[in-house]
Automatic annotation (TrEMBL):
EC number(s) reported in the record: 1.1.1.37
Keyword NAD: yes
Protein name listed in UniProt: Malate dehydrogenase, mitochondrial
Any one GO MF annotation of this record: L-malate dehydrogenase (NAD+) activity
The organism's taxonomic lineage, starting at the top: Eukaryota, Metazoa, Ecdysozoa, Arthropoda, Hexapoda
Length: 345
């Protein structure tokens, strides 16, 4: 029995870590790796055989996280750095994932995080422009609707902006929608796929239930409650944790899903689709909008746009425009203020 157990464990690990010659080549940097999202995200990425080096960065506690991860029996190497100099972490990175920043607490909205987290994204974008302008940037830091424009403006000012490579990780909205709908229709969540468009806060989150695969016949009050739950899901977690955190585990999973998809696309796998919040002209009224995207070796291969919407979904898009405009303008103004010496106008 003991020998059989050992053999079974070995075969499992061998199967799990099986790879091809093209793997073990991508360098992935995580900025904010010792935080509530950063640690589980780092663990998930340590298990991915498409990563050669996992580069961890945070302002504190990062040596212990790196040492802990380095004991895990995968071939992904782990390095770490701290302080506000991102150079050693970002240089040569293929993908940069940013969960750094202050988490939400009870009573806070995502926009309440802006002042602290805007500076984090601004500094990372500055470091990226200098050390790794060709990398893929995946931003988890909230409020995503406002901080993604900060990154884009910083890179644009540096002459380094490639909008095909900048992603706001709104993937958690898709994960939640699939999970909640699966519970209603009695399906395995892994078999459910529902596009989520718009932004990543409140009414800007627009789940397209009419395009559910498999079809989900959810109408009336049940549909209204479902959409509200998706839009308020982050608050649901904050309340449930009673002041001890926000959505960390589910966010880490969602970020790993988007990162894994991007890694597969970089390795040439075709027809990989993920929804994310990006610089886009699919909705003329706003500069940034989340839609399903086909991923490729250069980032966004094709933006699939809004697709067919029901009348109710089209109305939701219209209602999302004003809050999105305000959040985007807030991010852009932050960058302008920094250029004017940080003075508020």
């Amino acid at each position: 029995m003991f020998r059989k157990s050992i053999c079974t464990s070995f075969l499992f690990r061998k199967s799990f870590l099986r790879t091809t010659p093209q793997n073990f080549k991508h360098n992935v940097a995580i900025i904010g790796a010792s935080g509530g999202i950063g640690q589980p995200l780092s663990l998930l990425l340590k298990l991915n055989p498409n990563i050669g080096e996992l580069r961890l960065h945070d302002l504190k506690d990062i040596p212990g996280v790196a040492a802990d991860l380095s004991h895990i029996e995968t071939a992904v190497s782990v390095s770490h750095a701290d302080g506000r100099d991102y150079g050693s972490t970002l240089k040569g990175a293929d993908i940069i994932v940013v969960p750094a920043g202050m988490p939400r607490k009870p009573g806070m909205k995502r926009e309440d995080l802006f002042n602290t987290n805007a500076q984090v994204v601004y500094d990372v974008a500055k470091g990226m422009a200098e050390h790794s302008p060709d990398a893929i940037l995946i931003i988890i830091t909230n409020p995503i609707n406002a901080v993604v424009p900060i990154a884009c403006e910083v890179l644009k000012d540096a002459g380094k902006l490639n909008p095909r490579k900048i992603f706001g990780c709104s993937t958690l909205d898709s994960v939640r929608t699939n999970t909640f709908v699966a519970g209603i229709i009695g399906a395995d969540p892994k078999t459910v796929n529902i596009p989520v468009i718009g932004g990543h806060s409140g009414i800007t989150i627009i789940p397209l239930i009419s395009r559910s695969t498999p079809p989900a016949c959810i109408e009336g009050e049940q549909l209204s409650k479902l959409i509200t739950r998706v839009q308020d899901a982050g608050t649901e977690v904050v309340k449930a944790k009673a002041g001890k955190g926000s959505a960390t585990l589910s966010m880490a999973y969602a970020a790993s899903r988007l990162t894994f998809s991007m890694l597969r696309a970089l390795d040439g796998e075709a027809n990989i689709v993920e929804s994310a919040y990006v610089l886009s002209d699919v909705v003329p009224e706003v500069k940034y909008f989340a839609t399903p995207l086909v991923l490729g070796k250069c980032g966004i291969e094709k933006n699939l746009g809004l697709g067919k919407l029901s009348d109710a979904e089209q109305k939701m898009v219209c209602e999302a425009l004003e809050p999105l405009k305000k959040e985007i303008a807030k991010g852009e103004k932050f960058v302008q203020d920094q250029k004017c010496g940080g003075k508020k106008k």
